[in-house]
Design goal:
This protein is mainly alpha-helical and 174 residues long. Helix content is 53%, strand content 3%.
Length: 174
């Protein structure tokens, strides 16, 4: 397989296999193994550089799409306000005209009675029997971590080592 078409995992496995061959030959490196090894090293370096470029591009695209999403959400909320305002204006016009119907050339609107709806004016004035209690429990990770680090057993939690991927310029690159 052409080295340029290999995935990072395939290149890494190939390098590992070559290292095992070198180990089995007790360090004897013939010209074929040396050429393949050098080729795989170069391919791995190029692949890593490609990964870095793609990672940076993905971060940029993520930011751009987040901004677009925020802008689109604002636009959607604006359209909702216009929708609600137009419907309110139609209802008010009907009420002022004392009519339950308004018609255009192509559309007509009719004001009908719906079920009674509850409008809460001030929650603070409502008696307790008309309120539902909601309790939300969320893990306090800082307290859990402190307890675990102090040797306490916290059922349902444990400390794990987390690996973080960081990006740095290659050595010799400024």
């Amino acid at each position: 397989m052409c080295v340029a078409n290999q995935s990072l995992i395939e290149i890494t496995k190939s390098l590992h296999d070559l290292e095992l061959q070198i180990l089995e030959s007790q360090g004897e490196i013939n010209s074929e193994i040396e050429a393949r090894y050098n080729s795989e090293i170069i391919a791995r370096e190029k692949k890593i550089d490609s990964y870095a470029a793609i990672i940076e591009r993905c971060k940029l695209l993520e930011s751009q799409y987040k901004l677009k999403a925020e802008k689109n959400l604002k636009t959607a909320k604006g359209y909702k306000r216009v929708y609600e305002s137009l419907r309110f204006n139609l209802k008010q016009a009907m009420i002022l005209l004392g009519s339950d119907e308004l018609a255009g050339d192509e559309v007509r609107f009719k004001l009908t009675s719906a079920k009674e709806a509850v409008e809460v004016i001030d929650e603070g004035l409502l008696p307790l029997e008309y309120l539902d209690m909601k309790t939300v429990y969320t893990p306090n990770k800082e307290r859990i971590k402190a307890a675990l680090l102090n040797g306490l057993d916290v059922p349902g939690a444990k400390l794990t080592n987390v690996q973080q991927l960081r990006t740095y310029p290659a050595k010799g690159v400024k």
